Amino acid sequence: MTAANDNAFTLSRHRTLPIPSTITPVANYPAKLRIYQTNASPYWQVRCFFKGKTYTQSLKTTNKQTAIHSAKYFYHLKVAELYGTEVVRKHSKEYKFRDVVDGALAIEQARTKRGDFSVAGLRILQNRITKTVLPFFGEMVLANIGYTQLNDFIAKMSRDGLSNITIQQHLVVTRKILTHAYTLNLIPAIPKFPNIKSQSKPRGSFTLAEYRLLVRTARKSLGSLLGPHMKSICIMVAGSDCYTYVYRII
Fold it and tell me: What phi and psi values does residue 190 have, to the nearest 5 degrees?
């Protein structure tokens, strides 16, 4: 039999359960990451499954797009926290740069698994952290890293002979790690970064007359060295930013 108060009882009992019509997966993220609404709160909620356990959190917003953005942050923080990259809370409250490197790397590794970041790019990122960024900033207290320290880092890389473009790439890596620290509320703000000017140096290209001369010279040189069935030339074609080698049978 159905009691007269069944509907009211069911509604109050399941107030915290997701409303099926509001369950929304986050695009380009694992299917286990979803946002939803409940009858218990006007705010969107996020839910994700890690290591045999479901984690949920209120996103404190009624705007769906804002909720999706916040859900992505929730996912990255959980990845860093649960997969061996949790920042150890210290009584001194002085967190060092090296304390958040693993967490920042975990986020990039998660992006690589999703296909948002290339494997080669991840390897380059790791090399820059290990060889250059971490040796300089590793033992510094996060709260003490500011414009002066970043400028000193640039000066050191300049002394080591790094080009402006390479210096910029190392600053991008440094910013990623400091942004992660900011996300974890370990620093009040991301410090201002010095500006680095870089000018592209386009490579020279051959004129049409020079191409003709190159081909004639190659034919003469290769013709005396190769047999009748092995005559080929290698033409170097200059593009906007690289050289292409084209093999042609004579």
Answer: -80, 125
Give yes or no for a contact between 150 and 194, defined as CB atoms under 8 angstroms apart: yes
Is residue 62 over pLDDT 60?
Answer: yes
Pick the closest to residue 70 from 79, 60, 80 (CA basis): 60
Confidence at 241, pLDDT banded by 50, 70, 90: very low
How many whole angstroms separate alpha carbon 129 and alpha carbon 134? 5
Measured CA to CA in angstroms, residue 102 lies from 37, 109, 150, 181 at distances of: 33, 10, 20, 11
Question: Does residue 135 contact residue 153 with C-beta atoms inside 8 Å?
Answer: no
d(CA 53, CA 8): 30
Burial of 141 (0-12, 13-18, 19+ CB in 10 A): middle
Name, in order, each residue with C-beta under 8 angstroms of 199's C-beta and a sequence gap of 6 or more.
164
Q: How much of the chain is helix, strand and coil, in % rounded to 5?
A: 50, 15, 40
How much is the pLDDT for 75?
Answer: 83
Single pTM value for the model: 0.49
